[in-house]
Amino acid sequence: MVIRRPKKERNLKKEGNRKIAVKVSLKKYNLNTARYAAYAVSDAAYVFIAPSGKGAVAVEFTLKNGSQVTGHDKSHVTRHTSQAGNYMTAAGNLVRRFREELKDEKIRAAVFDANRDLREFMILKALSYDTAAPPAEQEDSGLTPEQEKELDALIAQVESEIKKESAGSGTKDPLGITRTWEEKYGAKTGRKRN
After folding, report:
1. Residues 80, 44 contacting (CB under 8 angstroms)
2. Number of structural domains found in the chain
3. How far is the CA of 121 from the CAs of 14, 77, 108, 133, 172, in angstroms?
4. Is residue 143 one of the residues assigned to a domain?
């Protein structure tokens, strides 16, 4: 009787005591995608990526001591004492999780490449920010030259009246607002003690 692995797991090999190798085609996924996906599952296994013929890499996983990927949430990793049955379950879950991460990383890479021009534009704008203001246009107040002269004369007249009022009063603080507490009420000489 010959037992065949499911089609998805045909590229899965068990090597040694706790090693699993998965062959990844570089025609379908690039090397960085495989590397990032392997890193995502490195919490449950040590990862080694090696060339595997032309156009493929072998991603070898060595389960960490007592690691087992459990549950439907493949990102949840718990530590158990490993037995033969648990090892096969952990290995299968790890491979499934790796394949999911491989697909996710492929999508992330596609989005990253699609937005490359936008990112470069935004970085260029951020790094080449010009702090100098654009040259100001001459302000047009809408007044004729005669009206401007009359306005300047009125401003000069108001400024001179303000100077006369402040110089003629003699004291700069007629209400005593700027005096200190000690000037107004006298300095404390000491406290009375009982």
Report:
1. no
2. 1
3. 48, 40, 20, 22, 60
4. no
Q: List the CATH number of the domain containing 75.
A: 3.30.1360
Q: Which residues pair with 59 in a beta bridge?
A: 22, 49
CA 37 to chain centre: 21
CA nearest to 91, candidates 110, 63, 72, 118: 63
Cβ neighbours of residue 135 closer than 8 Å, sequence gap 6 or more: none
Q: Encode pLDDT of 94-138 as tens digits.
A: 899 999 999 999 999 999 999 999 999 999 988 887 766 666 666
Nearest residue to 34 via CA among 116, 110, 103:
103
What's the domain range around 91?
7-114
pLDDT at 26 over 80: yes
* Its pTM surpasses 0.70: no
